[in-house]
Amino acid sequence: MFSPHGPSLRELAVQALSSVERGYDLLAPKFDHTPFRTPDTVLDTVQGALRNMGPFDHGLDLCCGTGAGMDVLRTVCRRSVTGLDFSAGMLAVGREGVRSDGPSRVAWVRGDARALPFGRVFDLVVSFGAFGHFLPGELPGLFAQVHSVLRPGGRFVFPIGAPPRPSSPWYWALLGFDTAMRVRNALWRPPFVMYYRAFRFGDVRRELTRAGFTVEHQALPDFGRRPDGSPRCRLIVATRGSGTPRI
Which of 2, 61, 132, 178 is the most buried (most CB within 10 A)? Predict the structure, then answer.
């Protein structure tokens, strides 16, 4: 799962015993060589869907990491693209790796997604693979923050995968990982919040609606369907209305 250029087991252990911010600062130089980076298949599929919705003027990649989603935004946003992350190390790698030429201005901002340092300026907000770093109780505030930086009619778009069935090895792998993280956080400080099973479709849809979004979703056909016919991956499209979020 890790390339030869990825982190060693010792490096991963040091990162896992750090805070989330410090852990990602340490991981940043090798992050793109780990399975934690959003796969190109996901990025390409979301990019195609956004092209059908756009174009947009100003886009924000929430919790942008090293910038995989920034390249997606550059293809659908005509005026500006902004990446926000709280890890200075991840932002530094992103600045070096993402092209800044083209019609869209590119900016990198260090900040907390739970307290966004922007006004109502964006037409599009995307996020890839970052929601496991937020506890369920933080979702109302997080979604209210996104709502506050979108113009009326702006969209908050992100993919969400279906949880694996108990018959799948991935179910037990993710359960084991989340259990290990909970034990780690019970015994060690500072905590490292990274839970793969806490971000559930029903909860997400409910909290987005409470935050003032109109929520739609569509199957991403490239990832197929489960035996019961439900999609393996959906694209959430939450559109900002003109009202005030309810938190």
Answer: 61
